[in-house]
Amino acid sequence: MQNHDSLDFTNKAWDALYDAVDSRFFKDKDAEVIYAALSKQLKFISFGEYLKRYIYQKACLEEPFESVPVKTYQEIIKGAFAENNTPQSFDPTTAKLSALAKKWLTQQTVRRKVVFLLGFGLAMSAEDVNEFLTKALREQGINAKNPFEVICWYCYKNGYGYPKFESLWQIYSETPPGALDIKLLYSDLTIGARNSMNAISSDAALIAFVSKLKMADNKPQLSVTAKRYFDELYDKARELVAKIYNNEAEIDPSGAAKRTYIKDDITESDLEHILSSAIPVDRHGNLTPAKASALNAQFAGKRFSRQHIHEILGGRTEVTRFDLITLNFFIFANTLDAYPNAKARYSAFIESMNRILERCFLGELYVSNPYECFVLMCILSEEPLSTYADVWELSYQNE
Q: Which residues have a Cβ under 8 Å from the Cβ of 375 and sit 6 or more positions away?
């Protein structure tokens, strides 16, 4: 069997990071070095690649990882699903498992529900499923406020297969809603909801717990913890933008006092303007589409925009790890005086970021994600925000 170190996406990413920051050119040409590392050594790891690696290691395949055809993985999935009495979908479908398996093995990403189905079909542990959610999908781990995910988690934790899930789901579906736990749904932090879920020790306790989450409109619940951290970081970022504007403001030619900005003067557009200062704009002032960047594939189309911020603030979309990382990076990049050197700033950023991500159950910083590796390399440069902007600029020049 191939050495698993060669399959470790994380080791490869760390090698790329260290090669870049240890380069003798990094000090004077940091943006060029980082751009080269991103474009030549790092790539977006698709869901299909994560799934192949997982199956390769679990099945103890002997041939080199790169030589295993998709057909082999399809057959393994089909065999495992049959052995574990798992259907090809949670919902009625005419699609064949072999065709679905091929899609899962070749797609950039999949619906969250696919991971839960694979959890049963491949007899995953709850930890395996959480890792797929946080690393392969780059989303939150199992949601303790979602009845479906809680029931799946309970089955994984206790080693129950799909038939048990089906039985429990049927009981849940036929159980009238309990007294809706408004506090748990809308106020409790992720850690509190997770602790309540972890205390479930029997089928009866499970049904009692999920019945309190039953909602008539079946509206998905956004993470309270992630939104609170976003709001906190966003306010700090707005304060820093106001400070930047005040430092740059020119004296009015008439002799009038210059305008003094405060946090509340700063809008989503202001933050977008500073973070995306090097990205070309069209004649209407709109940013050039992300797909025009040579790093669009590595960054999976992610870019901080005023529209996205507006949707988060309005509670219409979930806060992602990308949002939290970008805001925290902006804060660290504008408080350079707080750290004696780049290494101290780097260590403090990782500690701060991991604490936030873990509390949101998004998993720690994952250097295999090219955007996260990019941010870490920028943090180690002398002028992080300028380097960040310069790399974005290079990506549009070299598309």
A: 325, 326, 329, 388
Q: Is residue 38 part of a domain?
A: no
Got the DSSP string for 284-299? TSPBPPGGGSTTTTTT
- Domains identified in the chain, total number: 3
Report if residue 342 sits inside a domain: yes
User: For 307, which DSSP code?
Assistant: H
Neighbours of 378 (CB within 10 A): 23
Residues 201 and 330 in one domain: no
Question: Which pLDDT score, from 0 to 100, does residue 216 have?
Answer: 45
Residues 207 and 232 grouped into a single domain: no
Beta bridge partners of 250: none
Pair 245, 174 in one domain: no
The answer to whether the CB of 39 falls within 8 A of the CB of 294 is yes
Answer whether residue 125 shows pLDDT above 70.
yes
Q: For residue 153, give its domain range.
A: 146-220
Q: What's the rounded Cα separation, in Å, for the pair 12 and 14?
A: 6
pTM: 0.89
Let me know whether 386 and 291 are in one domain: yes
Q: Measuring CA to CA, how many Å separate 112 from each of 81, 117, 144, 329?
A: 18, 9, 15, 28
Tokens 């995910």 belong to residue = 149
- The pLDDT value given to residue 363: 93
Condensed to tens digits (0 to 9), the pLDDT of residues 265-287 reads 999 999 999 998 888 888 877 88
Residue 355 belongs to a domain: yes
Q: Is residue 286 part of a domain?
A: yes
Round to whole Å and give the CA distance between 45 and 363: 16
CA distance 379 to 336: 10
